[in-house]
Amino acid sequence: MVHPCGLLTRREEPVPLKSISVTLSICEFVAGVSATLNYENEEKVPLEAFFVFPMDEDSAVYSFEAMVDGKKIMAELQDKMKAHTNYENAISQGHQAFLLEEDRCSRDVFCCNVGNLHPGCKVALTLKYVQELPLEADGALRYVLPAILNPRYCLSGWSEDSCLNMKTPVVPLEDLPYTLSVVATISSQHGIERIQSNCPLSPIEYHGDDKTSAQVSLADGHKFDRDVELLVYYSEVHTPSVAVEMGKPKTDSDCLMGDPSAMVSFYPNIPEAQPPITCGEFVFLMDCSGSMQGPMSKQDKSQLRIEAAKETLILLLKSLPIGCYFNIYGFGSSYEAFFPNSVKYNQHTMEEALRRVNLMQADLGGTEILRPLKTIYGASSIPGHPLQLFVFTDGEVIDSFSVIKEVRSNSLRHRCFSFGIGEGASTSLIKGIARVAGGTSEFITGKERMQSKVLRALKRSLQPVVEDVSLSWDLPQGLSAKMLSPEQTVIFRGQRLIVYAQLTGMMPPAEATGEVCLKYTLQGKSFENKVTFSLQPKLDANLTIHRLAAKSFLQTKDMGFRETPANDKKDVLKVSLECGVISSHTAFIAINKDLNKPVQRPLVRRAIPRPILMSTPVVMSSYNRSGKTQALGQKLKKKCRPPEEISPEMETARSSSNRTNLETRNTVFGNEHLVQLISLQKANGSWDLNEGLAVVLGMSLEDVLAALPLKAPSCMCL
């Protein structure tokens, strides 16, 4: 069942949320965010307001406070069930109460309740969080302020206890009754090269001779038609570093917050190695549910999600190495594979797959992703060809934890690479399945960087496995390091690696240093990277490193309100409450006891409208749960027997450089020409010299032939 955010007819009711103001501070690769929600009750009756909004799943929310008539009320983090009880009791006693919680089913959805908002009352609610910023393929650090929260699908057989099930008014984006403002400060000791955004910005102000800091703000009039994305380019991003942060005074010795914490950032210098002769089994899982018919964004001429996903898949198909195995699954309310079993990649099988990819449409109903996943994991392995799973979806599933759990339970036999398609894709699902299965995640919201993202993921899937990963510390006597991050088992070339540790024991004098060493083996050879650092801890009132360390731990243990095992739940509650970082088992609650007016009648309920991008009707019919649909038969009905193998003479082996060259083609050709060029490419990496290729190259066939060496073959490789 798809939950389309409640009421589909407009109701002329005042909305108590008036504005959202965000202050962003980016220092190196960590963002600190303070977001304030400003409420005012303009009605003549007391209200209870509900606001459901998206957050990046990497956000460590550590503070929630209310400002009521000049008085600040700090919220307390409590067990979620206890917080709900206290909230209801406070309202019934005539107090004002404020509740902030992470959704039970997904880490990237939050709900804020404002209880007993009296006529004329103004309240400012401020939440604060910190997060690591991911490193993009082109060296940019990417910060995203999620603004879009699309409808999500409830998986068959699962309860519907998500806050996304609240009835929420749907209004056109241009009619949203509240505003958004963002002010950002960026700083780096290495200097800032440039700042880019997908939204209009005010003029950027750089400070310092070497541009070590900058300030920028979102231009007025943001329409909530896209997530707010900032891309920050530093002069140097690959410098390893260690930051040591002072602990919180007067804290119990067994508490994570008590001792100093270290944040270690490595950029392992992994050499480029030749991939093994056997290349793997590549399985592509394509979302063909109704929501994929929506646009990538609300920008003019925005591509449909299904078309962007198909384009991405075609690029990957054309880039696979000869000799590997592959298969493609389309899924919605039901699913079907292109081939009964994975087939060997050659010209024949590639052409058949491309033909069927082009027939794909977003007409298969709901997002039942668990069923095809279980089928893929239940298939027999191909000896010598490790499974590499590529998932393409807009992530519109309410219960992301159940999907993550299924992927994690099969993590030892595969790697998962996920692609979030379009604005509002669930970061909880997309990042979560990649993290637990040793892969990487990418978000595709437009064509600007699609090719580089897709090919980066493929290159990583082809990389030889880095083994025996370990971290060792050389510290003064009496001082030791306790790892807080999960054990690292996968490292990719060109990837940043961040780990957290707690330093326990006697801290040495200020001038003392320590050393941390990352060791690993690649194709039988041993490698190591070392970093020397100062052991003098820095004071940070926000305890940023401690909070990020707690978040790293919670992402490993917290599998949702329903899915977390009992032993892990105990650890999650302990770390969450001690560190003040919210989890699916805890919630922030603030109570204003100064207001003590008995409630004479039930509070009037006001749900805050939230922006969505769905411009096409979501398919909602009985087949969503039955697992049967005629549409599936229309597009994927025909079973395809494995095509006959082509002759070895036709199967020209490709060098790795042929595939690497794909990464540079979008610097020569525009996006449109690149797609056309790839569509003409053969499985072995070559092109037939004909009029079609000449047109894409913008040349006549005669000129192309004249530019080639004498006695050139009738095909060529770039």
UniProtKB/TrEMBL annotation:
Residues 631-659 are annotated as: Disordered. PANTHER family: VON WILLEBRAND FACTOR A DOMAIN-CONTAINING PROTEIN 5A (PTHR45737). The gene is VWA5A. SUPFAM superfamilies: vWA-like. This is von Willebrand factor A domain-containing protein 5A. Residues 281-462 form the VWFA domain. InterPro entries: VIT, VWF_A, vWFA_dom_sf. Residues 1-131 form the VIT domain. It holds the Pfam family VIT.
